[in-house]
Structure formats: C-alpha cells, structure tokens
## 1
Amino acid sequence: MKRKEVNSSRMPVYRDAGFELYDAATTSDAFKMESEHQRVPDKYIYSRYRNPTVVSAEEEIMKLEGCDWALLTQSGMSAIDTALSIFQKGKETNPWLFFTEIYGGTISFIESVLKARRGLDIQYFTPEEGKYNLNEFEKLISVLKPELVYIESISNPMLIVADVIEITRISKKYGSKVILDNTFATPWLFKPLNYGVDIVIHSATKYFSGHGNLTAGVICGNDKNIMQSAIEYRKFVGHMLSPDDAYRLQTQIYSFELRFSRQCENAAKLAAHFENTSVISKVWFPGLKSHNSHDIAEKLFSGKGYGAMITFDFEGKSKEEKKSRRDKFIQLVSERIKLIPTLGDPHTILMPVEAIWGVKYPEPGMIRLSVGFEDYNELFGIINMAIAVL
Ligand code: PLP
C-alpha cells in the first residue's frame, strides 16, 4: 500500500526503524550524504542515525534557544556524555575543568566513567562561601589550560548563579571550550550561546517536557564542526531519542514559555513569603537580595525571573527539632505537594536535601522545592496551612 499524503499540520510520529531506499544508487548517495553529518539529512536511512520526528522537535528547541542546531538524546545524561565525549582525543586529551556545584549525577558520571574508566585528567573548581571567585578561577585556568570548562548556570540545591559571561570570557582567553548545563535557567531567562558558550545542555526531562512524563536531553550550539562530531557520536553510541518521545516533547514545548514564566512568578512570590516566615531560618532563591548571587542573577536574567527552584531550612534549636519540622511539613502538604525526586513538573514537588545529598548538605531541616505552575493562591494556602501548625 502506498503512503498517502495526509493534510496534518504537524510532523507525525515516524516509527520506522529503517527507511525505504528503493535502489542501489539512492542507497549509495544516502550513505555518502549521511557521512557528512548535516543537520537535516536528504534521505533518512535508519532511526538510530536520524529520524524526521526527532529533527522536527529539534527545530522547536532551536527556536527557543535561537541557535543553529539542537540534537536530542534519550536523557540529560546522554546529552552530557555526548557534549563531553566529542572532545576526548585518546591519550592526547588535555585536562577538563568542572565547577563542583553541578548535578550530583554529573559528578557520579565524572568520577565513575570519565576518571575511573576512561582515565581522563579531571580537575575541579570550588566556590568560596557560596560564590565563585573568578580571580581564583583565572589563576587556575591560566596554569591548567584545560580543553574544556563545564558549568551550570544555576546550581543545585544552593542555587548559585554562575557569572557565565565572565567565566566564558576568561575561558576563551586560555583557549578552553565552554559547556554549560542550562537546565535550571532555561533559554527563557538566559541564552548562553549569545555570550560565546560553545555547547548548551538541557535535561529536557525537566522544563522543556514540563509534565514529568518523559526523559530526554538536548545539546545546542552554533559551531558546525561540533554539531558534526556530536551527530556522529550520538549515532555510534546510540543516544538518539525515540520518535514517540520526540513527538510528545515537541507538543509539550509549545507551552514551555507560558509554563516556565508562571513557575518563576510563583517561586518569586513564595520565596519572598518564606523570608518573612518565623519557622524558616534561611531561604536560598537568587531573586532575594539576601542570596549570594543575586547581583549575578540580575545581570544574567535581566529581571525576567530567577528560576523556579527554592531551597529553605527550618528553624530549630537542635538537629532533632529541625528534622521533626521538616518531616511534619512533608506529611502535612503530602496530599498536594509530593516528594518526587525530579524537578520542573506541573505541580510543586519537594525533596528533603539531607536525605539526597547527605554528606555535602547534612542540614536535616532543608527542603528543596520545584515550584509548579498551579494557581498561586492554592499553593500558598497549602503551604501556609502546614507552616501555621509547625
Ligand atoms: N542536568 C541537571 C541540572 C539535572 O538536574 C539533571 C537531572 O536531574 C540532569 C542534567 C540529568 O538529566 P536526566 O535525568 O534527564 O538524564
């Protein structure tokens, strides 16, 4: 049966594992073109290489990020692996420099895979008192001359905002590529490629998907050589996103700006309220003047918002009192605010910081909220009801 043209306004889900190539000459041309790793192939060959539904979702992300290419992968972690691995050159690889305040899963990947298995020379740069000292950074990078510098725009769970503009400027001075995980800030707050960052990564599982119902990652950029290496790497290791997930992601991305702007708004109101709540001893939110990187957030995000994550600590005379407040709060809000270890969901969700980060952040009263796009008054009501009886 011949496929009929259907007057659909959307790219359909092409689930084909392999695509029809008709004859030997077309096959030969298709493989020749594929080896050039162009962003959109002339002919599709095999879905692990390229898939039209995935390309269509990538083009939606390119519009958001304002960039020349975007490549989707099965998860944020496979996006991170792709972005980093294309710079690995066997024994010739120069050191890679990572800021320490990055996603715990990325740290585990660095330690277990990049260091322990691949034997790479990994170096770290640590903040001082919740702030990156860029003079110290320049001292380190001028000696180390790393192949690449890896940062997150807003860190987790202390929400330190990195001065990406300055860090990129310094890194370029010493010939390093800059790779930035912009999952928490999203292009709605900040478009790092405009400031010379080489690769932007997102866990699209979070705000791009925005509904807590799919796992995906993406890398974005403007440099054609980087794109070609990444297309090749994704194909060889099989990091390609499935067409079904690409279709759902594309549909969910249409509402990204509406959702995320509302999430930022809800978070800002809630953080301001927490600062005036007596049972809360400290609030970390880059929109508050009390936050260590408020000035950097102002500079980078131009007052549009400050992200939708809040971390706070319960007041208590002892660790036991703090812990008991935390546990009581989690229980009191549990009907509407669930303990789910992810972020960027439609509804506000929470994580007890000490239970996840333990040694690094041992404070038993700390909670990290991923603020949703639900009605603010409803959210405020639930939280206030719990706080009133703590
Ligand atoms: N980057 C950040 C900042 C994250 O928070 C996460 C996951 O939480 C990842 C990357 C990994 O993404 P994924 O879980 O989609 O693999």
## 2
Amino acid sequence: MNIYGITREKLENYFIEIGEKKFKALQIYEWLYDKRVTSFFEMTNIKKELQSKLAEDFSFDMISIQKKQQDKLTSKYLFKLSDNNFVEAVLMEHDYGLSVCVSSEVGCNMGCTFCESGRLKKIRNLEAYEMVEQILLIEQDIKKRISSVVIMGIGEPLDNYDNVLDFIKIINDPKGITIGARHITLSTCGLIPKIKELMNETLQINLAISLHASNNELRNKLMPINKTYNMCQLIDTIKEYIAKTNRRVTIEYVMLNSVNDSESCALELATLLKGMNVYVNLIPYNETNHLEYKKSDSKTIMKFYDTLKKKGINVTIRKEFGSKIDAACGQLRSKEVELWKVFI
Ligand code: SAH
C-alpha cells in the first residue's frame, strides 16, 4: 500500500493490529505532511525495527510531473501514473489563495455530450494516493501551500467513492495537508445513491451539482446519466442533502449557445430552484475542437444572470481560467491523449 493513500484512522488501526500504540499514526502524519520526509528511515522518533517494518508494508511511490504549461494565473500539470496512464490537474491563483482542480479517474464514463474529458472512456479509478500526490507534487513544485481543492478534473468523483472519500479525509486532516473542509468542493453529475451516502458522512465539504439544464428533456440530451437518475429525483435528493447537512449546494450550469441559455430556460430554472438553499454558478462554455457546442455570448449570459437574480436566485458567473492552455473545465486531457497515442 502507498503511504500517501492511507487515512490517519486506517493507519491507527494498522498500528493497533501490529501491537503498537495508535498515536504512532500521528507521528507518521507529521513526518509525511508537515516535515515532508520521503522515507521511514528519516523518522527519527520511530524505532529502527518499526521503521523497517513500515518500509516493508508501505511504499512511497510517486506519480510524476510529465509536463507543465503556464498561463498568467493558471498552470496545468500532466501527471504520469505508474502504469503509464496520464491525468491532469490545474493550479489557479485567486485573490484569496491558491486552488487546485484534481482529477479523480483516468477517463470518465458519464458521457456528457459537451465535455471533452469524457471522450476518453474510464480506464480505471485513481487511488487515493494518486490524488493526494497531485497536490503534494504541485506544492513541491511551487514551494507554496494550496488553500483550496476542487474535485472537478477528469472523472466522476462519486463513481470512485471510497478512494475519493479517503482522499478528502487525508487532505482535510489537521495533521495532513490541512485543507479545511469548507475549502474542498466535490462536483458530481448526479449519482443519486452516492449523494445520499455522502450526506451521511458528516463532512463539511461543498457539494456542486452539474445540472446544466432546466428540464428533463434537455438534460437527457446533454447528460446520459439523467436517464438513470432524472432531474426530479436529483432535485429531491439535493433538497434532502441540504436538509440533512445544513449546507448550501452549488448548482453548476454551463452556458451553451442556443441550447440551454434562453430566457425561458432561465425562468424554468428559477422555478425549479425557488426556495432552495443553493447558488447557481453559470459557467461560460469552453469550446473544444471536437464538439459542436458553442459558448453563449456574454450578453446572453448576463441576461440569464439577471433573470435568475430578479427571481431571487443566488447566482454568480464563473471566472474563466486557463482556456488558452486547454486547462479550463471540460478541456483536460483530450489533447494529451492524442499526443500520447502517438507514442504508446
Ligand atoms: N464529473 C464531475 C466533475 C468533472 S467536470 C461533474 O460532472 O461535475 C467539472 C465541471 O465542468 C462540470 O460541471 C462539467 O459539466 C463542466 N464542463 C465539462 N465540459 C465543459 C466545458 N467544455 N466547458 C465548461 N464546463 C464544462
């Protein structure tokens, strides 16, 4: 097992199982995430025999940075995994700090028709350590600490539930990477059973739902997942989530020219969300070469925004990051896939 993929609780259980005190887990975490050592033999408060035992049971294998592309406030990292698969993460500089958008799977099976990342079908889940290491390697590269994490890169995080949850626990741990739960956002296309599971975890993270449509018919066309879990069920689940967790939920709505950006869509969306503790994040669509969708013009986006506002819905327009380096939402990985196909 990779040491960066184990939660503190699981590490405590490991120590108990081998007849050691569980506080050793805390000591290991301090070495890993505070002092950032990369070998058990540097952990001087751990006795020699135990260091050797740990070295037998856990590895420090790292994914590696294959390539980095930079635009003013955005850097995109291409990571190579040990089985020669690739995923990407994006670092963004905001006025309030540094955030990283991590990938959760190699490829994605959700098949949203407007999303470039999903053109590559899912090859496998990412292990928790492969998500943790995306952050560790970026922090090491820029010599600064990350303040927030969004799980919005390649993949559907709730389709890799257990590993994503371990990842969240590790980065959120006050002795781990110490990213506050309120600075962690998980974005999903709406896997209802998993949203229900998530609401019972008592995590204070932010949940974002990729809604992207104002009615079932439209959503069916954009997001195949809607045929399994339809919008009415999804809205009910979001209401349940809000009631249970007392947390405001983000509704993501990508603005596609002449598809879902009309005045009537805005009104329909406002009716749907009326009275719910949500805020809508309008996402200017990032066009890609392979897909026909076009972005809504800024006037249309502003009008949609105004209509929602007038109807009393909280709404913001997402700041665009990284479209020049194909690092924006939905653009990750496709170019690289093509590039790497040439070599593999
Ligand atoms: N599978 C998860 C997280 C990954 S996608 C989810 O569906 O939420 C992150 C967000 O980017 C989603 O809201 C997704 O719908 C959106 N997105 C996908 N392609 C996009 C594009 N080309 N332009 C803008 N947003 C896009």
